[in-house]
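Lab manual, section 2.4: Encoding a predicted structure.

Procedure: take the sequence of the chain (346 residues), apply the prediction step described in section 2.3, and record the output as C-alpha cells. A sample record is shown.
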Amino acid sequence: MEDVAKILTEIKPLIDKKIEKHIPRKGYPQVLFDGCWKYFDYGGKRFRPALIALSCESLNGKTKDTIPAGAALEIAHTFLLIHDDIEDYSELRRGEPCLHITYGIPHAINMADYIVIKGYESLLSGQKIWGSEKTIKIIELMNEMLSITGIGQAMEIEQRDRDLSEATMEWYEKMSLHKTGYYSGGTPCAIGAVIAGGNEKQIEALKKFGFAIGIAFQIQDDILNVTMSESEEKTAPSTAGGGYGKDFAGDIKEGKRTLLIVHAFKNADKNEKEKMRKLVGKKDITVKEKKEVIEIMKKYGSMEFAKNYARNMVGEAVKNMKDNIPETEGRKKLEFIANFLIERKF
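Recorded output:
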C-alpha cells in the first residue's frame, strides 16, 4: 500500500502542473474554469497517468516523457466522469457535490465538452518528445478509447430499462470491457508502451494487462459501493487513502447491472428475483431497501464471486505480461499495482 501511494504521490504534481498549462484556473467566464477545476481539486488517485508511466518504464522508457499523455488521460477521465454523473443521476463525486448539482446540467455538459478538447491539446504538445509517428498512434488509441467507452456506456444505460434476466454474464463481460477495460487500463498501458518504443507484441501484451486491471478496478469499485460505511460515503479518496466519496449503494439506485447484481439475480429464488426487479433502479429507494438487495448478494456470495473473478482475470493477465515484457522495475511495479487494485479499500 505504501509503495502504491508513493508511486501515485510522485506522479500527481507532475500531472496537475501539466493540466494547469492547458486548463487555466482563471479566465472568462470564471464559472467555466471554477467548474473544470473542481473535479481535479477534489482529489482522485491519478491511476491512469501512473499506468502510462509504469508501462513506459517496464520497457525502459522515461516517466518524464509520459506526462503530456498522462495529463490527457486524466483530463479525458474527468470529461467522462462529468457526463457519467449526469447519466447516473449521481449526487456525490469524491465526497463532494457533482458538477451538475452545483452548476446545473447545461454548465456541467459544457465544462466536459471544453476539457476534452484540452486533453487533445495536451497530447499534441507531446509531439516534441515523441515525434509525429508515435503521436499519431497515441491519438488513434485515444480515439479508440473514447469511442469504445461510449459504446460500453450505451450498453449499460440501455440495460437499465430491460429485465434483470437479460443482464447475463456474457453481456456483462462485453459491457465491462467496452465501458471500463479500455479507458481504465488498456489504453493507458498501450500508450505507455508506444512512448517507450515497444513492438506490437509488447504493446498488445500491456494493453491486455490493462484490460484486466481496468475491469478489476471497476469490480472493486462496485464492491466498495455496497460495503462502505456511512463515513466513507462522504470522504473523498486520494492518492494515499481515504473513503469512497460516492453515494452508498448508488449503483442499486441507478439500476446498474454490476457483476454483483448479475450474479445475485442469477442465483436468487423466485421471490428474491421479484424483490430485485422492484428495488434495483428504484429512484426513491430507501437505505433499508438498498440493504435488502445487499442481503441477497451476501446470501449467494456475490461479493466473493466478484472478488475471485477479478483475481483470476488479473492473475492470467500478469502471467501473459511476464511472458512478453522483460523483468524490469517498471514491470514489477505494474504487478504490485495490479494486486493492489483488487484489494484496495478506497
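Check your result against the sample. The chain is about 75% helix and 0% strand.
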